[in-house]
Specification:
Among the domains are: 74 residues, no CATH class; 45 residues, no CATH class. The chain contains one helix and 16 strands. It is mainly β and 253 residues long. The longest helix is centred in the first third of the chain and has 5 residues. The radius of gyration is 21 Å and the shape is globular. 2% of the residues lie in helices and 33% in strands. It has a four-stranded mixed beta sheet, with no helix packed on it. Strand 9 and strand 10 form a beta hairpin.
Length: 253
């Protein structure tokens, strides 16, 4: 964290960047989830006291995946074990004070000491620090839900929409995606799809089209080619209509 005078003395502070070489040696290229772009910066805080009211100081990894930076993130409404968004300004996607966001809200913990996490959590160690993350492994889920792997040894009880490809494997060349959303707890949307429009990748199979580098089922907005339950037909300019998770009506404003 630079002194304000030092920060003002840099030539590249706040400028967009591709990597650290675009920044002053004392700055790092950092991707902001809020701005959805990368810019040159230093740490903006070291403790919560250096953040505005309603924000807390949290640790993030710079674009080089080596340097650590600290930035102020909104203290939110998400409780322990709920999904969250890192470096957010929206209270409905940030964690409650005292919790850290590593995809899911959790309290700080000590690696190798399971007792530092409550039941249903494990201590997940990362470069940003060790945080308790949810697991339902070996535990019973409510009726209509099952234990779903959400990555990084994390797992949550959820109702599956679409093809349960964690229970039945996808076809050759396809990957299983399991998407969750902070505003739809207890639900997961699954699809089998293959990568597309990248070098060396084959064209999409019949009945699918490429959208955001994945082959997805094509559909018709007029209902002629419907989507699976809890998936909706959506399209972007100059792209075919494809089936995507139906969560828009539940998303935060």
């Amino acid at each position: 964290m630079l002194h304000p005078v030092e920060r003002e003395g840099t030539l590249t502070y706040g400028r967009e960047c591709q990597n650290d070489s675009d920044c002053d040696p004392r700055l790092r290229c950092f991707f902001s989830m809020v701005l959805q772009s990368s810019y040159c910066t230093d740490s903006r805080c070291m403790t919560d006291k250096e953040c505005p009211e309603g924000f807390s100081c949290q640790t993030y990894t710079a674009d080089d995946e080596r340097a650590l930076l600290k930035a102020c993130s909104r203290v939110g409404d998400r409780k322990e074990g709920e999904e969250c968004e890192v470096l957010t300004v929206e209270s409905d996607s940030g964690c409650e004070r005292g919790l850290l966001c590593q995809g899911w809200c959790g309290r700080p913990c000590t690696p190798g000491s399971p007792a530092t996490c409550p039941e249903g959590f494990f201590c997940h160690a990362s470069r940003e620090g060790a945080v308790c993350q949810p697991t339902c492994e070996g535990r019973a889920c409510p009726d209509g839900q099952r234990c779903i792997d959400v990555g990084g040894k994390r797992s949550v009880c959820a109702q599956v929409h679409g093809t349960d490809c964690q229970a039945v494997a996808c076809g050759p060349g396809q990957d299983c995606s399991a998407r969750t959303y902070p505003w739809a707890p207890g639900e997961v949307w699954m699809q089998c799809s293959q990568t597309c429009e990248l070098e060396g990748k084959p064209p999409c199979p019949e009945g699918t089209a490429c959208a955001v580098h994945r082959c997805r089922p094509v559909c018709s907005p007029d209902g002629g080619a419907p989507c699976a339950e809890r998936f909706e037909c959506t399209s972007h300019p100059n792209q075919p209509a494809v089936c995507a998770p139906d969560v828009a009506d539940q998303s935060p404003p």
